[in-house]
Amino acid sequence: MNNDNKKATLELGTKPVGSLLLQYALPAIIAMTASSLYNIIDRVFIGQVVGAEAISGLAITFPFMNLGAAFGAAVGVGASTSISVKLGQRDYLTAENLLGNTVTLNLIIGIAFSLVCLLFLNPILRFFGASDATLPYARDFMEIILAGNVVSHMYFGMNAVLRAASKPRQAMMATIFTVVMNILLDVVFILWWHWGIRGAALATVLSQSMALCYQMHLFTNKRELLHLKPGIYRLKSALVKNIIAIGVSPFLMNVCACVVVIFVNNQLVRLGGDMAVGGYGIANAVATVFVMFVLGLNQGMQPIAGYNYGAQNMHRVLRVLNLAIVCATCIMVVGWAVAMFLPHTIARLFTTDSRLIDMAVTAIRFVLLVFPVIGFQMVVTNFFQCIGKVRISIFLSLSRQLLILVPLLGLLPLFFQLNGVWYAMPASDAAASVIAFFVMANYIGKLKAQVKERQTTLTH
C-alpha cells in the first residue's frame, strides 16, 4: 500500500476542515462547471448552426439525460460514499471490493439501460414532450448517446471513486480533458463536417471514452491505495445493498428531475409550443452552470463528511457542513444576479430567433428567481446522503422536485396559463428550502449533543 495515499486519506480526519474543503471542492467545482459549460457550448453550436427547433429538440432529451444520470448516480455516489466511510474506518479491503463491484454494476446497468431505451426510443420521446418538429432532432441525438451510455456510466462512476480515494485533482483533470475534447470535436463535427445534432452527441461519447481510458489507467496502478485487481469484481450482496441503499437518494433526485421535466415539457408544449420548450431548455442550461458549482462543492464535502462521520469526529462534520452552506449560498446569489440583470445577453448566445429569445428571457428569470436559498437546500440534502441518513435525504429530494412542484405544475396553469408553469418553479424551490431548514435545525441539535457528550467522555 502506498504510504502517501494512506497519508492523504488520513488527512481527512486531521487537516483543517477549511483547507480540506478547498482542496477537495475546488477541483470538483472546476470539473463540474467545465462539464456544464460544454453542455452550454453544445447548445450554442446547435442553436446557432442548426436552428431554434434543434434547441427545442435537445431540450426534450433532458429527461432522458436525467434518467441515465439517475442510474449512474445510484452506483457512483453510493459507492464513493461507502468507500469514504470504509476508509474512515480503515477497512481498506472492503473499500477495494467496493471499487470492483462499482465496475461490474456500471457495466450491467449501463448496457441494460441502453438496450431498453433504444427499443422504445420514439414512444419515450413522444411521452417526454416531443412534437413532429422536434422528434427527429431528439431521436438523432439520443441514438448516439444511448449507444455510448455504458461509457458515460463508467466515466461518472470512476470519477466519483477517484474523489473518495483522495484523488480530487485527477478527477478534475479527467473532466477538464473531457470538456476540452468535446469542444474540439464539436468544432470538427458540427462546424467543419456539418453533422449537426448527431455530431454533438458523438463528440460527447468520444470525449468521455478517452477520459475513461485515463481513469482506468490510474486504477490499474498497484501502488495506489485502491486499485483494480482479480477477485474484486464478483458482486457481493452486502456491498451491493450498501451501494444501492446510499445511492437511492441521488437516484430518486434524478428520477424526480426526469419526471418534473416531463411534466414541464408537456405543459409548455400544450400552452406555449416548441419555442416555450426551447426557452426552458436554455434556462435549464444556464441554471445548470450554478447548480454544478454547488454539486462540485457537495462532492468536495462528501469524502470529508463521510470520513469524519465514520471516525466519529462530529465537530469536523458540523464544520464542513457550515462552510459548504455559506459557499453554496454565495454561488447561488451570483447566479440569481446574472439571471435578473443579463437574461437578454445570455439568450442571444444560444439563438438569433426573436421568439426563442423572448421565451428564454422569461424562463431564465423565473427558473433562477429564488436561487439564493437553493444552495442551502442542495447542501443539506447532500449532507444527509454523505452520512448515510438516506431516508431524510430522499424526503428532502422529493419535497423539492416531486411533492411540491408537480402538483403546482398541474394547478397554477389552470389560473395563469403559460405563466403558471413559470410560477410553479420558484414557488416549489422556496417551499422546499423552508422544509430543509426545519429538518436541518432539528438534526443539528442532535449532532451538537453528540459532540458535547463525546467531549465530556474524553474529559473523564
Automatic annotation (TrEMBL):
Keywords: Antibiotic resistance, Cell membrane, Membrane, Transmembrane, Transmembrane helix, Transport. It is a multi-pass membrane protein. Pfam families: MatE. InterPro entries: MATE_fam, MATE_MepA-like, MATE_MepA_subfamily, MdtK-like. The chain crosses the membrane at residues 21-41, 53-77, 98-121, 141-162, 174-195, 239-264, 276-297, 317-339, 359-380, 392-416, 422-444. It is found in: Cell membrane. It comes from the Bacteria. Coiled coil: none annotated. Belongs to the multi antimicrobial extrusion (MATE) (TC 2.A.66.1) family. MepA subfamily. PANTHER family: MULTIDRUG EXPORT PROTEIN MEPA, SPORULATION PROTEIN YKVU. This is Multidrug export protein MepA. It comes from Hallella faecis.
